[in-house]
Amino acid sequence: MTVGRTLHKSLLAAALLAAGLQTTRADEWRTTSSLIGQSKYGDNFQHYDYVNPNAPKGGTLNSVVLGTFDSFNPYIVQGSPAAGLVGFGGGLLYDTLMEQATDEGSVSHPLIADAYKYPADYSSATYRLDPRAKWHDGQPITVDDVIWSFQVLKANSPQYSRYFENVTDAVAISDREVEFHFSQKGNRELPKILGDLAVLPKHWWEGTDANGKKRDVTKPTLEIPLGSAAYKIVSFKPGSEIIWQRVPDYWAAKLPVKIGRENFDTQRFTYILDDNAAWQAFTKGGLDDVKPENSSKRWKTFYNFPAIKAGDVIKKEFKTTSPEPMQAFMLNQRRPLFADRLVRAALTYPFDFETMNRTLFYGFNTRTSSYFQGTELASSGLPQGKELEILEKYRDKLPPELFTQEFKLPVYDSPQAERKYLKQAVDLFAKAGWVIKGGKMVNAKTGEPFKFEILGWNDTDQVIASPYIANLRKIGVDATLRLIDQTQYINRVNNFDYDVIIGQLGQSESPGNEQRDFWSSKAADRPGSRNYAGIKNPVVDALVDRIIFATDRDDLVAATHALDRVLLWNYYVVPQYYRAVVWLAYWNKFGIPAKQPSYIGADQNSWWIDLDKEKALAAKYRSGN
Fold first, then answer.
1. For 123, which DSSP code?
2. Residue 10 to residues 20, 151, 495, 548: CA-CA distances in angstroms?
3. I need a labelling partner for 376 at 20 to 30 A (CA). Which of 14, 24, 423, 563 fits?
4. Measured between alpha carbons, how far is residue 577 from residues 2, 80, 293 in Å?
């Protein structure tokens, strides 16, 4: 990002924030929440500007899912949740207090709650429930449901636990209002993100099943749960299929965030274990209608099957403007092998992105160089101004080069680059006490070989890992790749049972409480957290708190720059790459609004089934034409 663009965005954010503060005072009811100024829709939000408000309902969306499932409870560490259920948010089954916007960053609109408010010191937040909100059994969603859900999720969900760490309790103010109390003042993000709370039905979870056995929200279950959202589970085959049906009398269907969306009558998910089999299922039609594509090779060379040539499958690229995730080799510091920063730095140099991008990825990818890629929050150059002031407090605990050198990843841009960077890796290993003997990298004192395993579960992991492993072996590092089934992979990742994984960490334009789940020392020991690298660093903990309790946007940007820089210079991961696009291929059975939200690229919930197209495709491909 250029300096001019960064300055422009910073000034714009400050102007919007100022505008927001002028129009809404503290402790007034707010219908739309934003952490960066005001929503573009203001208080007169009718529906998203990209949807077709008269989109027809009907038809079936067919999807293929890799792996299997064994639970309808996504909020605990145990089990593999079924498609449509998510560990954070409500998924297809549950509504949240408010719903995150699809076309703006750090904005939420009313759902179960029709408004919220908070005092000027950010010491609490009060949410007011929409009196129309109800469960699928017709019972109203109550303040008691909200309080119980908060308690259950904070106690059992790794993500909600870190997200709401500063929320001490929730109390009923009236039959429509619930107040959340905070342990510290000044957490500017916390009042807004309480809207991300998934609300669960207390009366159902505290009841008994068909056999008279009391339900347990802390355990996996394959009993179909009661929900509140636009869809409900109507049937399933354990581990192989789950079918969701649109709720015809869904209470929130006329809310602005729902108009023109959630148009499919049925969503059918079929599980397939093998990626190649899943690809074949898509090309033949019937089981998989929309394929999000992640493989550069497949996107470039595989989309030439008969349905593509006939125009029955459409291949389209949707550009995105949201922050790019950090995709990387996550080095698990819970393993002593990766405890030394010099070792972690050494492991960065053998990753030859440029050759991989040219020979494997057809030039589609861009190297990731920040944990906050694509935003004004990404650090660059040398620390200065307020960022430097923040970092000066920790100078004696930080790598000295952080203050004197711009962080740069190796660039394999010439035939000589490989020799240069592999030598730098060997030199760093030597400083850390490792030497090459007999072609193997070994500990100079004990003779122990430097050996680790990259854990993966699909073919893409193999594509990414293989060239890296080959380069590591050139300097005597014995790295291997082990592919396991998805369920086993999820369980091992949740319990940090790996040396290295290929992981992703997404960010928003307004980072805050979720940073604890990514980087904090407490999260490093909590199964199911997203602190994949096992970071335990007091400076990182302090900077995370500085972000959470930032006094304004400028302070937040400076603190995030500082955190980004400290994470980069500690080499907790080996950064890989990103693409600022969404690749979708889909069978030509949909009506799609001409405009799609650039923030997320494409909102498939705004699509609908063209029943005539669907029938024509079914007839054509059943008949073998």
1. -
2. 15, 37, 40, 19
3. 24
4. 19, 28, 16
Pairing of strands 60-66, 33-34: unpaired
Q: Is 84 helix (H, G, I), strand (E, B) or coil?
A: coil
Q: What is the DSSP letter of 208?
A: B
605: CB partners within 8 A, 6+ apart: 102, 261, 262, 263
d(CA 606, CA 288): 18
Task: Say if CB 87 and CB 157 are below 8 A apart.
Answer: yes
Give the span between the Cα atoms of 95 and 199, in whole angstroms: 6
Cα–Cα distances in Å, from 76 out to 66, 195, 479, 533?
A: 21, 20, 32, 21
Q: Quick one: DSSP state of residue 196? A: G
**How far is it, in rounded angstroms, from Cα 424 to Cα 427?**
5
Strands 577-578 and 478-483: unpaired
Q: How long, in residues, is the chain?
A: 625
**Which single residue is written with the structure tokens 């050139």?**
474
**pLDDT score of 11:** 35
**Helix extents (H) in 194-257:** 202-205
Tokens representing 587 are: 């069978």
- The DSSP element (H or E) to which 335 belongs, if any, is none
pLDDT value of position 532: 98
Strand-strand pairing, 366-367 and 608-609: unpaired
| CA 257-259-264 angle, 5° bins | 110
CB atoms within 10 A of CB 137: 11
Phi, psi of 388 (to 5 degrees): -65, -40
Go through 104-121 and write b for each residue having 16 or more CB atoms within 10 A of its CB, e for each that does not.
Answer: bbbbbbbbbbbbbbbeee
Say which amino acid occupies 594: A
CA atoms of 150 and 435, how far apart (whole Å):
53
Calculate the alpha carbon distances from 441 to 425, 444, 499 in Å. 11, 9, 17
In angstroms, rounded to a whole number, what is the distance separating the alpha carbons of residues 405 and 99? 42
> What does the pLDDT read at residue 506?
95
Give the pLDDT confidence score for residue 26 in this predicted structure: 67
Q: Calculate ∠ Cα 384-509-531, nearest 5°.
A: 85
The bridge status of strand 60-66 relative to strand 266-272 is parallel
Burial class (CB in 10 A: 0-12, 13-18, 19+), 265: middle
Q: Which tokens go with 291?
A: 């394929």
Adjacent-strand bridge partners of 481: 454
What are the start-end ranges of the H helices in 454-577?
459-474, 486-494, 515-519, 521-524, 538-548, 553-569
Q: What pLDDT is stored for residue 25 in this prediction?
A: 62
- Rounded distance, CA 621 to CA 625, Å? 6
Q: Give me the sign of the Cα torsion angle 214, 216, 221, 223.
A: positive
The model's pTM is 0.90
Mark the ranges of the chain whose per-residue pLDDT is less than 50. Answer: 1-23, 624-625
Cα torsion 404, 409, 413, 419: sign = positive
